[in-house]
Predict the 3D structure of the following.
Amino acid sequence: MTRDLTAQNPITERGRMAPKEYDAILLASFGGPEGQDDVIPFLRNVTRGRGIPDERLEEVSHHYRAFGGISPINEQNRALKAALEAELAARGIELPVLWGNRNWDPYIPQVLQDAYDAGHRRILTVTTSAYSCYSSCRQYREDLGMALVESGLDGKLEVDKIRQYFDHPGFVEPFIEGTAAGLAKVRAAVGEAGKVHILFATHSIPTRDADAAGASVDEPREFDEGSAYVAQHLAAAAAVVERVDPAADWSLVYQSRSGAPHVPWLEPDISDAMEELAENGVRGVVVVPLGFVSDHMEVVWDLDTEAKETAERLELAFDRVPTPGTHQKFVAGLVDLVCERTVANNIADRPAMTGLGPWYDVCRPGCCANFRGEKPTIAGADTRVGSVAAASA
Ligand SMILES: CC1=C(CCC(=O)O)c2cc3nc(cc4[nH]c(cc5[nH]c(cc1n2)c(C)c5CCC(=O)O)c(CCC(=O)O)c4C)C(CCC(=O)O)=C3C
Ligand SMILES: [Fe+2]
């Protein structure tokens, strides 16, 4: 099943794919439970084959139970879908927005099948993940690739995805606004003399996954910070700080670690970082959930519940900045990212607020490797599925 997709999908500089005539957008997301009975089946879906201990699942189930078994993520994606539809309509762009999830209904394979049955043939995916790592990039590409293979739609339905958008102004600007407002609030709370620190928070991942993130098998160690995942977050954080207050103190911290204790994950954890800041005389923190697109469970539990409690215990003033959510600039930015890839309404300019971007439309070989074994993926230079034109080659 090895095919040369580059012949049919001209890839120019930095993995850029030539614009195409898409006939639908797929908003692809994580999915979440919608009631107490969904919690355990959802957690099983998420962790299938991922080596997460039962104790961790038990603990995480309590986060969902505390919210009635309902994750906020599905409602947030319905709102984002509606906002994208409104923005497309306002620009006169006639592309329907489909919605599918990795871990909960509506599931991606069913959505692709329905899309095909409805007559769609070329789909551009927008994921709710901004950075490069297995969970945010390749896992989506695999899930789309597997869905095509298992349904027999490979070769009949073309599926691509937009570039990772961690440094697109549509993603970064809402954080700039939020951080400026948060900093003002926390500074007012601690007074003139009180030291304030900005904590950019993202999901911890195994260091092995971090090292493989965004990397090419040809240039495995091209990032000074050791990994594209860390480098992208540091660059996006720096872009925010530069525009809010270049003199502010800040750092990148991690949250939501799972996995077995002997497996190294990215550190420091946000709570440990807050302990250390408090010991060093810091009086207030602004927490920026830079790794996340909406205020889902990882944000409302790990930050608004746990980190906030830690701040109270340490007597730190605390403000949590909003995620992009359905901020108008974010919604418009996603539509701009779609227009970069479309023939009609094409936008030639590909803005990027850091030196790392604009990121690749087509991932390089081995990017965000899956150490548990290779699967068919879409949207990679080493991709085996997803292109109709290539199927005849
Ligand atoms: C990088 C990253 C993002 C950000 C990028 C993105 O958004 O894609 C993210 C988002 C999310 N993670 C989420 C939920 C969970 N993640 C888990 C487990 C894991 N996440 C990981 C990484 C990430 N996760 C990893 C390396 C694991 C270990 C298992 C594995 O190697 O795959 C588990 C299992 C229990 C646990 O271990 O905590 C749950 C329940 C939800 C939904 C929230 C809601 O329901 O509102 C969202 C948006
Ligand atoms: Fe996660």
Q: What stands out?
A: Residues 5-165+327-391 form a domain with the Rossmann fold fold (CATH 3.40.50.1400). The chain has a mean pLDDT of 92. Residues 271 and 306 are 8 Å apart (CA to CA).
